[in-house]
Fold this protein.
Amino acid sequence: MDKTKILDLVKKYTMIIVLILVLGFFAIRTGGSILLPMNVSNLISQNAYVFVLATGMLLCILTGGNIDLSVGSVVCFTGAVGAILMTKYHVPFIFTVLAMFAIGILIGAFQAFWIAYVRIPPFIVTLAGMLIFRGLSNVVLDGLTISIKDYTTFVNVFGGGANCYIPDVFGDNPLNITCLLAGAIATAIFVFLQFRSRINKVKKHYEVEKAAFFWAKTVIISVVILAFTFRLSQHKGIPTVLIWVMIVVLVYGFITSNTKTGRYFYAVGGNEKATKLSGISTNKVYFLAYTNMGLLSALAGMITIARLTSAQPTYGQNYEMDAIGSCFIGGASAYGGIGTVPGVIIGAVLMGIINLGMSLMSVDANWQKVVKGLVLLAAVIFDVVSKRGGKMISKD
Amino acid sequence: MADNILEMRQITKTFPGVKALDNVCLEVARGEIHALVGENGAGKSTLMNVLSGIYPYGSYEGDIVYDGEICQFHTIKDSEHKGIVIIHQELALIPYMTIAENMFLGNERGGRQVINWNETNELAKKYLEMVGLKESPQTLIKDIGVGKQQLVEIAKALAKNAKLLILDEPTSSLNEEDSKALLELLLKFKANGMTSIIISHKLNEVSYVADKITVIRDGCSIESLDKKVDDFSEGRIIKGMVGREISDRFPKRSTDIGDIKMEVRDWTVYHPLYSERKVVDNVNINVRKGEIVGISGLMGAGRTELAMSLFGKSYGDKISGKIIIDGKEVKLDSVKSAIEHGLAYVTEDRKGNGLILSNPIKINTTLANLSGVSNKAGVIDKYEEYNVASEYRGKLNIKCPTVEQNVGNLSGGNQQKVLLAKWMYTDPDILILDEPTRGIDVGAKYEIYCIMNDLVAAGKSVIMISSEMPEILGMCDRIYVMNEGRMVAELKGSEASQEIIMSHIIKTA
C-alpha cells in the first residue's frame, strides 16, 4: 500500500483509531478496571440517552449544521409529565408511554413549524424552547422531585434501577446464557449480511473492497460484538435499555442510509437550492428533523426518569450539549450534509469512555469538562481543516 | 508620445483549463474617458480585476505601468492606495448603513480605532456635492433608489482620492434619466482632469462619452479606436466585437421538427423583493418537438428569471400568464409538478443551484428522480442506483474513475455532464438549458452540443439560454432575443447573425 492510501484509510477511520487509543490509555491508567464487566454495562446504561438524542440531533445537524438546544428541557418536561401521569392520575403504563411520545411529537412539531415554514433560525426557536420547557417542567412538578420507584414496569422496561436486565431464560448461571446467545446470533446475522452483500456485488460486477480488507473488517467487528456481549454476560446480561438504543440506531441507521427520506436530509445540507430545484420540499425536511427530535427527546425522557427512578425539574440539563458534541466528534459536518448514525454512536461512545475513564481515575469533575471541551474543539477543527485541504488558516 | 496614466502590457491570465486573457494591451491617456467593450465573457472584468489587484501580482503575466512605474498590486488596498478605484456592476453597499457609513467603510475617518463622525459626515457631504447627490449623509442606503446608490458608489470612490476611476457597467441597472446624469457627471470629472475607464454594453453611451475605445474579444485586445481619427458608429464597434469566424465548432444534425410542444403566453414576473419591478414582461414564446430554441440576450436581460419562473415558479413573485403543453393549459405551481409535466431546468449555476459538490456522482444523478431507484416504501435500491449512474456515465462520457467519486472533484465539463445526467434521468420532454457550456473547455462544449442533438433527435424539445452568440447561432433552429425582460425579436436560425442580434439588443436598450 502506498502512502496516500494509508492516509485515506487513517482519515476514514480516524475516530475508531482515536477510540482505540483512548480506550487503551484508560485501560492502562485505571489498571484495566474500565474493561470490567460492570463498567462496560454501565457505559451503556449511563449513556443510553446520549445515543438516542445524538441520533435525533444528527438529522438536525445534517440539514445544515443546525442544532436543537431544547432537547434537555424537552427530556425533562416529557419525563415530568410522565411521572405525574403515573403517580397522580394512575394512568396505566402503556398509556403513559403513548402520552409521553405524543407530547414529545407535539413539542417537536411546534418548534419545527417555526423553523421549517416560517424560517425562524433554529438556534432562536430552540433557545426559546429550552427556556419554555424548562420552566414548564418546574410548573408541572411544582418544583418537587417525584419518585416513580414503585412503578416497576416502567422502570424495568426503560432500563433503570437494579434489575433492568433481560432475564436469563436458562436459569441462574455465572454467565448469562441468553446474553451470550444474543451476541452469537447478532454476530451470525452480521456475518451473513456482510457476505450476502459482497456476493451480490460480485454477481452484479460492482466494485468490492479488497478481500483482505473485507475479511479483516468482518472478523474485527464480529470479535468486538462477541467480546462486548461476553462482558455483559459476566454482569447480569443485556441491560433492557440497550434494546431501545439498538432499535433507534438500527432504524435511523437504515433510514439515513437507505431511504429517500434519509437522502433528503443529506441533500438539503449539501446544497439546499439544488435540492429545492430538484423538486424536493425542503420545508418538509426541516419539519421532519425537528419533529423527530421531539419524539426521540420523549424516549430519552423515559430512559432518564426510569434510570433515576424519579422526575425532577433539573433533569436533562446539558443533554443537548452531549448530543451535539457526540455528533461533531462522530464526524458530522458543522456545515451539514455529512455524518452517519454509526459515526455519531462512535462519537457518543468516545465521550462516554472519556467520562467513565476520568471518573474511574477520579479526575476532578471540573477538569473533566475541560477535557471534553478540548476533545470537541479538536474534532471540529479536524473536520474543518481537513475539508480545506489541510490549510489551517482561512484565506481572507 | 502621449501622456499615459496607465499601460497594461501583454497581460496573460490563465485559469485552470482556460486562458481568460491572452496578451492583452491597454493604454489609457491621462484625463480621457476610455471605454472597454466586448461580449460577455470576453475578458473585460478579468482585465479590471488584474488591474485592481483582485488577482494579485504573480498570478498573471505581463506588466502594469501606472504613472510611469511598474506596479505590483497584491490586494485591492494596494491599487486603491495609488488612486485606482473600481466600481463593480453589482453595487456593494450595505442597505442598513447610512450613506456616510458606507462611503467610509474600510476607509474610516478619525483615529486608529475611534471614528470621528463629525469629520466623516462633513467629508461625506463634500463628496456627495461633487457627484450632485442631494441627500443627507445620514440617510440609509435602503431608502434611496438604485440611481442614487450608484452615485454613492462614485462618491465613495472619490473619497478614496481616486485618480483613475473604473466603472463596470455603471448604467446597467439605471433608467435613461439616471444614465444620462451619470454620463454627464463623468464628462464633468473629465473636465476636472479625472481619468475614467468605463465598461459598457450600451454602445450609444460609449460613443457619446468615450475618447477612446478598446475592443476585447475572446481574451485578446482586438483594436483601439480613437474618436479623433476613427468611426465611432455602433456598427463599427459591433464589427470589432463579434468579427470572428464560425467554423465547424458545432455538430450537424438533421432537423425533424414537429408540432408545438410548449407554449408560453403573456408571461409576466415581478422581482421577489422589489415588488414593483417587472423582471419578465409579457413574454410569448413556444418550442416545438425536436427543436432547439435559443434565448439570446445580455446578462440581466431576465432569461434565467424567465426560465426559473416557468420551472414551477422557482423564481419571482406575482407571476401571471399561461403555460400550454401539448395543447392543454397546465398549472406548474411547484418544481415537483413541473418535473411531473416533463420539464427540466438545467441551471446556469451548477455549483450553487445544481449539484451537491460534497456528494458522489451517483447520488447527484438520481436526486431529482429518487422514485426511479426506490420501492414504494421509499427504500432506495443502491445497486439500481449505481447502475443508473453508471449507465449515464457511459452515455454522456463522464470522465471519472467511478460513480462513487465526489462531484466536487470533477472538472467543470464533467460536472456539467453530471448535471445533464441528473435531469435526463427525470425523462423530461422539454429541457431548459441555462448557459449549458459556461466555463467549460472547447472539447466538452462539443460533447454537450452532441448530447443536445441526441435529445432533439429523440423528439425532445430544448430551450437553450446562452450569452455566447456563436453557440446560439450554431445550435438553434430559432432564436428569441430578450432584453430588459421583454422578447424584442424572434429570428430564424438560418437568418440570424451576431450583428442582427446585437443591433436588436442595442436598439431596445
In short: Chain A touches chain B at residues 200-201, 204, 206-207, 258-261, 263, 266-267, 270-271, 273-281, 337-338 (CB under 8 Å). Residues 165-238 of chain A form one domain. The longest helix of chain A spans residues 177-203. The first strand of chain A starts at residue 146 and ends at 147.
